[in-house]
Every structure is written in C-alpha cells, then in structure tokens.
C-alpha cells in the first residue's frame, strides 16, 4: 500500500504510525516535510524549505493564511512531481495546522485524506488571556480568529479528520465535530514503564547527581516557556527547596518557543533565571536543555514527583509517558489535563498559575509515602487501560482500511 504523509516537522505525530507501517515491506512510505535530521528506516523523505513571506503588503490578520497558502502551493507542486514519477498514494495523512494539505486533492482527487485537526483557536475559554501576566489585548483577536481559516477550509474538503482528545474535539464547532474522529494517542507501555532499579544508584546527568536517598522533582517541556508553565515552576522553587533539604529538581526543555510570544532579546530561561537569581540554591536545580530520549525515560522512572504545567491547551506526549512510567503527577487544573489526570485518583491538580500552591502540593506528595505510592500505581493503571500504543495503532489501521475501502 502506498502512503503519503505531509507534516512540516517530520515525523510529527506520526512517529509510531510510521515505524509500525515500515515493518511491512509491502508498504511504500513517502513523507513531505521541511528539513531536519530525523530519519526512520523505510521512509522516503521529500524536503521543502519554509516559504518566504510576501514582499507585498499583507494585512496582519491574514499573514498566517498567506504563509499557509504558500506552503500548500509548494507541497502541491512536490505532489505533482511525485505523480509524474509514478507515485500515486492510496491514502494521504497529514496535519492541517500549516496549510500544507489544502491543495492536495487537486493533485490526488481519488486518494482519501486523513487530516489531523489539532487545535481550534478561540479568543476566550482556553489559552488566550488565561494568564493575566501576559495579556493579549482585543486588538489581536481578529488575527486569532483568522488563524482558523485553514481549519475551515480543511473542513470543506472531501476528506476525513482525526484529533487525539475529547477536549480538542470539543474546541471545534458542533458542525465541525461531526467530521472529525476521536483517535486517542498512546504511549509505548513496554518502553515507558516503571523501573525500581533506577532508584538503587545515583541518577546522573552530566555533573549533576541525585543520590538514592534524595528526592527528585521533575518537569519536562519541549521548550521552557509560559505556555507550559515554566515561569510558575521557577517561582515555586524557593518554597519547594526550602521545604525539604533533600530535594533536587531537574527541568528539561529547550530555549526555543513552541507556543506563545518570544522575548525580544533573551530566552524565557534567561529571563526567569534573572528574575529568580539568589532566591534559591541553584546547585540543587538542573536545566539541562533537551536531552536524549533514553535519559528522559530514566528521569521519569527516577522521579519522586513529576510536575506537568500547561495553559488550557493541547496536552503533551510527555504527560502520557509520565503516566505510563508510573510518575506521581502534580499538574495544572485545566480541562485538557483533567481528561487524563483525575484529582486525588491518579494525580493531583493545582491552579496552574499558583506557584505557592504548586510547591505545597509537590511537598505533600513527597512527604506522604502512601499517597505517593497510590498515585504512582494509579497512573500506571490508567496508562495500561487507556494509553496502550497498540490500541492506538490498531485504531489507525482500522480507520485507514475504512476510508480506503470507500475510495
């Protein structure tokens, strides 16, 4: 079977699907994306570069769509080349967020499309103006609404949609929800799993070491930024470290910005380190940047309490993997997280912007051994019941089989 995947950041949400499909030599896998060093055996990549913005004056409200249209044009051109070379996909899978799929039906009108609908933008009720420290201002509301132009155009295509959580599905209007399937993503339970042996020896990253008798608090985000509560976590450190002298903290994340605004002349890490300078013992805190996946897994397995913070926004893969590793989780009390973490059952929820409450709750989980053990066991049970990667892959295969049989 011939598969065409399209996502500007290879492999995006399709890592496990690609690996699964690549195990069958009868499958031919082609992926259109921007360049990056990632590679998966059995997947042929076609690369394009981010198009340059228009040199003509474009109204600020439609800048995002202007770029999306340029991406769609480039991708359609690459698809036509593929077609001329004899490759016509049986199915197209891709992410609608950047507009790359908008023209694909013009090239392959008979190939069903399974498009990933990740997020429907709104000016209230979710991420926008959730954090009063960073007000958006209603002068930017028109651009936020216009960011749904790609969503709306995609929903008019004769195609199929998917999204990974109930919360994300309910962000879309009622009429749109009927066109989008809920296909819950998972974690590799055979890889992301508890490992008590990790606690029997010092846990070391570079020159930073956590002894077996010390308590380790972990925090993970793709990038250290307010959307993922980095500023709140940093402000919790003084109370957290003062509460127990045996606590050490590792905060993983890069210095780019995935969501929200960039600072004009510095990173959020540098900004918060400057704000918090001298307020806690920084020898007990490590910010290693982004780390290898194997180290990240050992970090979760060694964690005594794992902190997951986010605005009301798409939940990270790291939350699923932390649950699968049996972490004792303290997380933001927002709907997107509460779909996974039930307060008092398989984790604890705290007001997402309250640094003092966060520190108090983490200390409670560290000090109450019975609570800690109960939350750990419940998180793993939840993962086994609801986050099995094999269930997700089976659902994807069934969906693909269904939509291709209709074509």
Give structural notes.
- This protein has 2 domains: 2-186 and 389-406, Glycogen Phosphorylase B (Rossmann fold, 3-Layer(aba) Sandwich), CATH 3.40.50.2000; 196-386, Rossmann fold.
- 40% of the residues are buried.
- The strands form 3 sheets. Strands 3-2-1-4-5-6-7 form a 7-stranded parallel sheet.
- The protein contains 15 helices and 15 strands.
- Helix content is 37%, strand content 17%.
- Helix 1 (15-22) links the parallel strand 1 (2-6) and strand 2.
Annotation, overall tally of beta strands: 15
Question: Share of helix among residues?
Answer: 25-40%
The second-level CATH architecture of the largest domain is 3-Layer(aba) Sandwich
Mean pLDDT across residues: 96
Strand content: 15-25%
Tell me the overall shape.
globular
Write out key terms for the chains shown.
15 strands; single chain; Rossmann fold; 7-stranded parallel beta sheet; 15 helices; alpha/beta; 407 residues
Compile the SSE list and pairings.
Blueprint: E1 2-6, H1 15-22, E2 28-33, E3 43-47, H2 63-84, E4 91-95, H3 104-107, E5 113-116, H4 141-146, H5 149-156, E6 160-163, H6 166-171, H7 174-177, E7 180-182, E8 203-205, E9 208-210, E10 215-223, H8 230-243, E11 247-254, H9 268-275, E12 285-289, H10 293-302, E13 305-308, H11 317-324, E14 329-332, H12 335-338, E15 348-350, H13 355-367, H14 369-386, H15 389-406
Parallel strand pairs: 1-2, 1-4, 2-3, 4-5, 5-6, 6-7, 10-11, 10-13, 11-12, 13-14, 14-15
Antiparallel strand pairs: 8-9
Helix pairs in contact: 8-9, 8-13, 11-14
């Amino acid at each position: 079977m011939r598969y065409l995947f399209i996502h500007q950041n290879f492999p995006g949400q399709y890592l496990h699907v690609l690996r699964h499909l690549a195990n069958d030599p009868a499958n031919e896998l082609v992926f259109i994306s921007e360049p990056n060093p990632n590679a998966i055996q059995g997947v042929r990549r076609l690369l394009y570069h981010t198009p340059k913005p228009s040199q003509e004056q474009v109204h600020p409200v439609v800048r995002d769509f202007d770029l999306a249209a340029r991406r769609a044009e480039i991708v359609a051109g690459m698809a036509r080349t593929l077609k001329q070379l004899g490759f016509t996909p049986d199915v197209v899978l891709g992410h609608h967020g950047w507009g790359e799929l908008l023209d694909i039906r013009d090239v392959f009108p008979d190939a069903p499309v399974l498009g990933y609908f990740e997020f429907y933008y709104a000016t209230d009720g979710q991420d926008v103006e959730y954090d009063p420290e960073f007000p958006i201002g209603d002068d930017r509301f028109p651009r936020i609404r216009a960011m749904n132009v790609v969503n709306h155009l995609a929903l008019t295509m004769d195609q199929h949609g998917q999204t990974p959580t109930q919360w994300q599905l309910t962000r879309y209007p009622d009429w749109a929800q009927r066109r989008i399937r809920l296909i819950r993503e998972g974690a590799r339970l055979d890889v992301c799993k508890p490992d008590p042996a990790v606690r029997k020896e010092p846990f070391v990253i570079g020159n930073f070491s956590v002894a077996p008798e010390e308590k380790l608090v972990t925090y993970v985000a793709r990038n250290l930024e307010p959307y993922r509560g980095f500023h709140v976590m940093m402000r919790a450190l003084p109370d957290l470290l003062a509460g127990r002298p045996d606590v050490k903290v590792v905060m993983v994340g890069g210095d780019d910005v995935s969501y929200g605004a960039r600072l004009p002349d510095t990173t959020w890490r540098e900004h918060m380190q400057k704000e918090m300078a001298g307020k806690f013992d920084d020898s007990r805190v490590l910010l290693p940047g982004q780390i290898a996946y194997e180290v990240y897994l050992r970090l979760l397995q060694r964690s005594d309490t794992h902190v997951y913070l986010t605005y009301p926004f798409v939940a990270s893969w790291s939350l699923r993997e932390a649950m699968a590793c049996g972490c004792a989780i303290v997380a933001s009390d927002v709907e997107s997280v509460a779909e996974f973490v039930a307060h008092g059952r398989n984790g604890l929820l705290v007001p997402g912007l309250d640094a003092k409450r966060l520190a108090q709750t983490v200390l409670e989980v560290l000090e109450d051994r019975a609570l800690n053990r109960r939350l750990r066991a419940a998180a793993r049970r939840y993962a086994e019941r609801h986050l099995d990667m094999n269930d997700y892959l089976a659902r994807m295969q069934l969906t693909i089989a269904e939509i291709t049989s209709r074509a």
